[in-house]
Write a structure and sequence with these properties.
By secondary structure, this protein is α/β, with parallel strands linked by helices. It contains 16 helices and 14 strands. α1 packs across α3, α8 packs across α10 and α8 packs parallel to α11.
C-alpha cells in the first residue's frame, strides 16, 4: 500500500512511522518547508527524531524505517497521486475569538483533491469542530477532484488519542473511533487501522466521531476546572487540596454494583492548562453548535470551565505578588525566573503553554524575567535559557509551571544558594509547603492553604 501522511507533527510522525514499519507499506510524509517547521524534512530523512524529551521508541522507529527505505519526507504534495490512503494531520488552531482557523486544512484539502487518484481513501485525523469533515473538507475534495465522496473516493474522520510521552503506545493500544462518510468508508478505515492498532476499533460516522473527539477533551477540561475551583476553595479555607483529593479519590469502586458506588477521580489542579487540544476543543464544540445546531443553546458549563482554567496564570501572578510582599518586595522591583515553558513534563511541546500568558502578565511589570526549559531551544517573544543556574542566580522569585524532572530534583538548599530572595511560587505541587517554610522561604502553591 502507498500511503501519504500530511503534517509531520506529534500525530503525523508517529502515525507515519508505525505504518512504514508494516511489511509492504511505503509511506511518504509531507511537510511544508516553512521557516518554523521546514527543517523537519531533512532531519527526518536523516533518520533523526525532531520531537525532543522522553518519547519511548520513536527515535529508534524513525531510524529503522528510514534505513529500511519505507519512509521519507518531502514538501511536494503531488505525491498524493499514487496514494491508496492519505492521512491529514495539519494544525487547526483557533483565533482570539475562539473560531477555528482552517487555512492549512483548506489548502491541503484542495491540493489532495487535485492530485488524488480514483479509489483513494482520505482520512482526516486533525481535531476539528464537528461538521468540518462534511461541510468543509468534503466539498473542497469533490470540487478539486471532480469526484463524489463515497463513490470516487472514501472519506473518513478518525481522531488520534496521542499524548506527549506516549505517542507510539497510545496509537497502538488506545481504542480508536473510525467515522466514515459511508458504511463502506468506515469499514475500509477499520481495515486500514488494524495494521497498527492492537486495541478495539469502533465503527461510527464522521459527525459522531468528531463530536466524540472534542467531547473527550472537553470532559477533561471541565474536570480540571472543577479541581482548580476546589483548589481555590481550599486556599481560602486554609487546607491542602492534595489531602482533599487523596481522601476524595479513596472511595473505592464496587465491581459488584458499580452504579451504586462509582469511584471518584478528582483531577490535579495547577498553574494552567496547555496542549494542542484541551484549551481549544471546548470552543470547537461550541462553534459547531452555533454553526450547525438546530436550536440556540449556550453550553455554560464548558464555557465557564474554560474561562476558569484560563484564569489560573492570573492566579499565579497574584501568588507572585503576595509571596514577594511577604519578603518586603514589590513586583516591579523583582527579578523573576519561571521554570518550564513546555506544557507537559519532560517534553519540548509548547502548544498553548500556560507559561506564555503568565510571562505576558509579568514582562512589562517585573524588573527582569527569564524562562528556563531544558528541552525547548527557542520561543519567539520570550527570554529563554537552558542554563538552570544562570536562570536562578540572583532572582527574587522562582515560579514552577512545568514539573520537569530537572526541577523536581533541585534541593531547597540549592535554591537558597542561588536566589537573591527565598521565594517559591509552586504551580505543580513540587515542594512541601512545610519544608519551604522551615527553610525560610516565602511559599505559595495552587490549592495549598498556608501552613500555620
Amino acid at each position: 500500500m502507498e500511503i501519504v501522511v500530511i503534517g509531520m507533527g506529534y500525530t503525523g510522525i508517529p502515525a507515519a512511522t508505525m505504518l512504514a514499519d508494516v511489511n509492504g507499506f511505503n509511506v511518504i510524509g509531507v511537510q511544508r518547508r516553512s521557516k518554523r517547521s521546514g527543517w523537519k524534512i531533512d532531519y527526518l530523512n536523516a533518520g533523526k527524531c525532531p520531537i525532543e524529551g522522553d518519547e519511548p521508541g520513536l527515535p529508534a522507529l524513525i531510524e529503522k524505517v528510514v534505513t529500511k527505505g519505507s519512509f521519507r519526507v518531502t514538501e511536494d504534495i503531488s505525491v498524493c497521486k499514487n496514494a491508496d490512503a492519505i492521512l491529514i494531520d495539519v494544525q487547526t488552531p483557533v483565533d482570539k475569538n475562539h473560531a477555528p482557523q482552517y487555512d492549512s486544512l483548506r489548502e491541503v484539502s484542495k491540493a489532495v483533491g487535485k492530485h488524488m487518484k480514483k479509489g483513494a481513501m482520505v482520512i482526516l485525523e486533525s481535531t476539528v469542530a464537528p461538521g468540518t469533515t462534511y461541510y468543509i473538507v468534503k466539498p473542497i475534495l469533490e470540487d478539486a477532484s471532480g469526484m463524489k465522496a463515497g463513490k470516487g473516493f472514501n472519506l473518513v474522520y478518525s481522531y488520534e488519542r496521542v499524548t506527549v510521552g506516549r505517542l507510539l503506545h497510545n496509537l497502538k493500544y488506545m481504542p480508536r473511533i473510525v467515522g466514515g462518510l459511508t458504511p463502506e468508508g468506515t469499514q475500509r478505515g477499520i481495515e486500514f487501522y488494524k495494521n497498527i492498532s492492537k486495541a478495539e476499533l469502533f465503527p461510527s460516522d464522521c459527525l459522531t466521531a468528531e463530536v466524540a473527539k472534542v467531547t473527550e477533551n472537553t470532559y477533561r477540561d471541565v474536570n480540571i476546572a472543577f479541581a482548580n475551583e476546589i483548589a481555590l476553595v481550599c486556599e481560602s479555607l486554609g487546607v491542602n487540596v492534595h489531602d482533599v483529593r487523596r481522601f476524595v479519590n479513596s472511595l473505592p469502586n464496587d465491581p459488584s454494583n458499580p452504579s451504586k458506588n462509582p469511584y471518584r477521580m478528582l483531577h490535579i489542579p495547577g498553574a494552567g492548562v496547555g496542549g494542542h487540544c484541551i484549551p481549544k476543543d471546548p470552543w470547537l464544540l461550541k462553534y459547531s453548535l452555533d454553526a450547525y445546531g438546530t436550536f440556540a443553546f449556550t453550553p455554560k458549563l464548558l464555557v465557564e470551565s474554560r474561562r476558569l482554567n484560563d484564569f489560573m496564570p492570573h492566579h499565579m501572578r497574584d501568588f507572585i505578588i503576595e509571596a514577594l510582599a511577604e519578603k518586603g518586595l514589590k513586583l516591579q522591583d523583582a527579578k523573576v525566573c519561571i521554570l518550564g515553558l513546555a506544557f507537559v513534563r519532560d517534553s519540548n511541546d509548547t502548544r498553548n503553554t500556560p507559561t506564555l500568558p503568565l510571562y505576558n502578565l509579568l514582562q512589562d511589570v517585573c524588573k527582569e524575567i527569564v524562562v528556563h526549559d531544558p528541552y525547548v531551544k527557542e520561543f519567539e517573544g520570550i527570554a529563554l535559557t537552558d542554563n538552570l543556574e544562570e536562570a536562578l542566580k540572583d532572582k527574587n522569585c522562582v515560579v514552577i509551571v512545568t514539573p520537569h524532572t530537572d526541577y523536581v530534583n533541585i534541593s531547597l538548599d540549592r535554591f537558597k544558594e542561588l536566589l537573591a530572595t527565598p521565594v517559591i511560587v509552586d504551580g505543580r505541587n513540587v515542594f512541601d509547603p512545610r519544608d519551604c517554610k522551615e527553610a525560610g522561604f516565602s511559599y505559595r502553591g495552587v490549592g495549598i492553604g498556608m501552613p500555620q
